[in-house]
Specification:
Length: 209
């Protein structure tokens, strides 16, 4: 009986010591080490890839934003976004896709309407957009509805309108787009892209200067 109690106490003691050690190592030391390395080597990404303007955080380069006026470059459509109807204490936007097939009548109508709007909005007095110039990302949502990037073709399509509305030379705005165009990741993955929030932040700085 005494041996059984002693063995049980020994096992409990060993278990508690293991719990204490693992709690310190896995719950304190490891998170601190990972956080320290992330802050030292990947400071911007570790803090959410924040973008600042006038000393204030205006968003993240990883999440697309809607609601820009026509003085700015427009992002991809976000038809799949929804509103939170469960916990109405918080005003949330739910990401998501439209879940429409390529031959869905409603999707086709959305695309046609979006293309007509892109043509109309981006045509200026001395530059007319042709429907054939409108790229796919200008009229279709991404899978999440939160794509922060547009194609260089869509950015270039908007250059004349942005230049006219801001009183800037077309070549200067096109140069701004080129400066914010990223190539394929590692040279072969994905497609060239332009981050809309970064581009619009730079445009705002340019118009102030």
């Amino acid at each position: 009986m005494n041996n059984s109690v002693t063995n049980t106490a020994r096992l409990l003691g060993a278990g508690l010591r293991a719990l204490l050690v693992l709690t310190v190592v896995c719950g304190v030391l490891y998170p601190l080490a990972v956080t320290g390395v992330a802050q030292a080597l990947f400071h911007s990404k570790a803090n959410g890839s924040e973008i600042t303007s006038d000393g204030k955080v205006v968003g993240s380069s990883l999440i697309g934003q809607q609601g820009y006026g026509l003085d700015y470059f427009q992002p991809r459509p976000a038809n799949g976004l929804g509103e939170n109807s469960v916990n109405t204490q918080y005003k949330l936007i739910l990401s998501g896709a439209t879940n429409r097939s390529g031959d869905n009548a409603e999707l086709i109508a959305w695309v046609k309407e979006a293309k007509a709007k892109v043509v109309k909005d981006n045509s200026t007095g001395d530059y007319k957009v042709r429907p054939s110039q409108v790229p796919a990302d200008a009229v279709t949502s991404s899978g999440s509805g939160l794509d922060p990037d547009i194609s260089p073709a869509y950015a270039d399509l908007q250059v004349h309108r942005v230049a006219e509305r801001n009183g800037l030379p077309v070549d200067r705005v096109r140069k701004l787009v080129d400066q914010h165009t990223e190539g394929r990741t590692l040279g072969f993955m994905g497609e060239p892209r332009v981050n809309v929030l970064e581009l619009n932040t730079a445009l705002k700085d340019l118009t102030k200067g």
